[in-house]
Structure formats: structure tokens, C-alpha cells
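Entry:
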Amino acid sequence: MSVGTPVQFIRGRRVKDAMLKREAKPEWLKVRAPGSPNYLRIRSLMRELKLHTVCEEAHCPNIGECWHYGTATFMIMGDVCTRACAYCNVRHGAPGALDPTEPDHLAEAVQAMALDYVVITSVDRDDLPDFGAGAFAATVRAIRARRPGCRIEVLIPDFQGREDALRTVLDAGPDVLNHNVETVPSLYRLARPGGRYPRALELLARARVMAPTIPTKTGLMVGLGETTDELIAVFRDLRQIDCQILTIGQYLRPTLAHMPMARYYTPDEFAALKRIALDLGFGHVESGPLVRSSYHAHEQADSYDARADALARG
């Protein structure tokens, strides 16, 4: 670096001012600002019941569409995460105590919204003895009690590799078990320092053995600097452990304090990745610039179920 080059410090790293400039979003990433009556109704309900959603915490670009159609991804165990992933907009630090009434409040919201499919996720809770597995199980059971016909997808953290924690969640009987690998192995140290790629694969593999009737699902972000060959290698790793549902979406840098984005992928590139993944044997692949793990989650599960039934019939 030449003398006099302006620098700033971001999360302990020196970064040139040129890197701090935001690149204009391409047209295919622009969405309408939320504000429909149903969106406002759901937002009011969330505030009334003191619930958190990853839709808001992670600044999801699909919040307007999803909430308009009455679907949301609930985030349990608070809104403070014990980890500090470089791509994530959720606050990190020391979380508070668990709210014992949260499972019932969340189930009440699911019933009030008359949801037929719900996604439950959480912050990482490395401070808890079971890493939050019990809270997931309690939430699944509370929803089952209030709305028995609702299908439930759980998007879980890695529980630091604890097999008993994973079993606790699976024993509660979710309909889909989701854990995101997020990125390729070479970027884990920078993007996800609290996670381990082999541990993520091990969790998904164990879930298939423990509960073979529950489909497993995972998601990847692109645009962090990975190569196509690296992505395909991850696809192959996932198919080797029989992961059935895959989502692929564009990384969007939440703020200038987060990990820089390397580039935008085009819709054609997302379509090409989807074809490759389907050819490798995934039961369903959702791939696109605005795709997030829970985007159209009920449609992903329906598509997987239909394809599985067709294969079973030969």
C-alpha cells in the first residue's frame, strides 16, 4: 500500500476506501418496497406477540412477497447470536435467557395466520447446554398441538456437532430438516469462522441415518469469491450424503462492515447451476438471484414430494 492511501478498519481489517463503495444492483435484484395490507397485518402480529423473524433480522429482499402471501420464517431464542459470521446481519454478542413462553406464542401466531407451512430457525446459542435443540423441539410440538396439519421445516444451527442435540430435534418430528452449508470450504475461515464445513456435512449425513423419512435440505450463497468448480464439488459432497433439497442464492452485502461481495451472478448462471445440481440427483433445486433458504419453502417441499412419489412409482 502506498503512503497516504486512505484506509478504514472493518472488523479488524484494513480496507482501501475503493473497497467500501457499493456496486449498483442489477435490475434482476430490484424488488418492490413492502407495504401491502397483509404485510402490515403480519408485521403487527409479530410485534404484538413479541416474535422475531429472520425475514427482518437478515434484511431478506423477499419479505414483501412472502409476508403478502402470509408466510414467514420465525427466528426463535432471541435476536442476538453467539457467533459473528462475516456475511450475516443478525446482531452478535451475549444473548439473554430463553423465554419459556416463546413456543406457545409462536404456535399462537401460526394458528392466527392459518399457516399450512412454517419455517423455524434460530440464532446460534453456543451458550446453552443443548445449544438450543430443546427450544426447537418444544416449538415443533407446540405448533403440532395448535395446528396439527401445518408442515414444519426447521433450519437449525450445527449444535457444535452434538449428535444428541440433533436427535432431540428429529425426535420432535419436523417435516424437513434444513442446515445451510452457506459457502465452499475455502471460504469458511473468512466467512464463517465459527462453523466447520465437515461438521455441516456430518450433521446432514447423521440426519439421514437417524430419520430417513425426513428430507434434508441445505443452502448456498454465491458471489463471495468461490469458483464454479468449487460449487460443483460441494454439490457432489451433498449428494454423497443424500441431501435432497438445495437452494442457491446471491450474497448481498448487508453493510460495509460485512464481507465484501466478489460479483453478481446472472440469472443464466443460476439456471446453469440448477441444471448441474439436478443432473447430480437432487430431488429439488431452487436457484436464483433472490433465492433464500426459506423462499417458497412450501413449494420446494411439494416439488420434492412429487418427484419422490414419481420415482417410487417407477
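The two ends are 63 Å apart (CA to CA).
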